[in-house]
């Protein structure tokens, strides 16, 4: 029996409706909202304007928030890569029993709510918290370290949260490296360090870029951890967007900030894909 020409469109119709209703429609509403004017005390106006975008791009306060968010994303991504790469190698090159236990330990923190984990870091990093108390009791420091309500605390908290994502994305990339390539390098008397930097890392570049994109995007858009570990005065783009919507009630400015954050994330993904394609062509040739 010949299938009806409408079979294909009917199969994708539910997903299309869900996409339109759940993503495209809210995005379009937010886009229109970001182009509306706003007057304090009067609310959202009826005029169309680019002032919300221009105020962000031309105001030093907002530019500092954007720069801080990007710096946070790069620091967290770098820390996750430094910790996640050895972890992925250890898991991959362990016995099957150790691999299973290690993967479970990596996945287990993901089952815990981010709020709970952030509260845990507040207990550890507070001026009178566990870390400062232990360091002062041992005589290493004489005054509490400033580990909270600044960049340090936020980087520590986000790194712990996103290291599993980096490690889990690096494991398949390392599995795809042919063992014969590293064996051939050792046969040619290359040291372990040279094999690692000239063979393992270049062949794992696609996984490194994929994991870095995911961690960076999650870091610059994180809200709960920067708010809890950074405090109300430590502003990044996600916390400022929340404040514009919920505290200042300036929805057009918040929508404009949200689209600028989205544009930054898309630009990063585009650049990373170009870099990944370049390395892939170089490796294949």
From TrEMBL:
The chain crosses the membrane at residues 12-33, 45-63, 70-92, 98-116, 151-174, 195-224, 251-272. It comes from the Bacteria. Its main location: membrane. SUPFAM superfamilies: MetI-like. The keyword Cell membrane applies. It comes from Paracoccus shanxieyensis. One of its GO terms (cellular component) is plasma membrane. The keyword Ubl conjugation does not apply. Gene3D superfamilies: MetI-like (1.10.3720.10). It is found in: Cell membrane. Keywords: Cell membrane, Membrane, Transmembrane, Transmembrane helix, Transport. Belongs to the binding-protein-dependent transport system permease family. CysTW subfamily. Pfam families: BPD_transp_1 (PF00528). Residues 66-272 form the ABC transmembrane type-1 domain. It is a multi-pass membrane protein. GO terms for biological process: transmembrane transport. This is ABC transporter permease subunit.
């Amino acid at each position: 029996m010949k299938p009806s020409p409408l079979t294909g469109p009917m199969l994708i119709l539910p997903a299309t409706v869900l996409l339109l209703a759940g993503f495209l429609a809210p995005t379009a509403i937010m886009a229109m909202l970001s182009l509306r004017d706003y007057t304090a005390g009067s609310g959202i106006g009826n005029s169309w304007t680019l002032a919300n975008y221009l105020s962000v791009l031309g105001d030093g306060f907002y530019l500092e928030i954007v720069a801080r968010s990007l710096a946070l994303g790069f620091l967290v991504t770098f820390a996750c890569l430094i910790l996640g790469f050895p972890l992925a190698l250890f898991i991959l090159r362990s016995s099957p029993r150790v691999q299973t236990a290690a993967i479970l330990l990596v996945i287990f923190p993901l089952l815990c709510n981010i709020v709970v984990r952030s509260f845990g870091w507040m207990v550890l990093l507070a001026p009178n918290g566990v870390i400062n108390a232990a360091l002062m009791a041992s005589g290493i420091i004489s005054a509490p370290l400033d580990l909270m309500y600044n960049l340090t605390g936020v980087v520590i908290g986000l790194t712990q949260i996103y290291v599993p994502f980096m490690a889990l994305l690096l494991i398949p990339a390392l599995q795809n490296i042919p063992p014969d390539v590293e064996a051939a390098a050792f046969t040619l008397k290359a040291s372990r360090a040279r094999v690692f930097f000239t063979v393992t890392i270049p062949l794992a570049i696609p996984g490194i870029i994929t994991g870095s994109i995911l961690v960076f995007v999650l870091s610059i858009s994180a809200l709960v951890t920067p708010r809890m570990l950074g405090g109300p005065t430590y502003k990044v783009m996600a916390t400022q967007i929340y404040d514009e919507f919920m505290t200042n009630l300036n929805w057009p400015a918040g929508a404009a900030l949200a689209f600028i954050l989205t544009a930054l994330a898309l630009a990063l993904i585009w650049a990373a894909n170009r870099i990944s394609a370049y390395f892939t062509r170089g490796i294949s040739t």
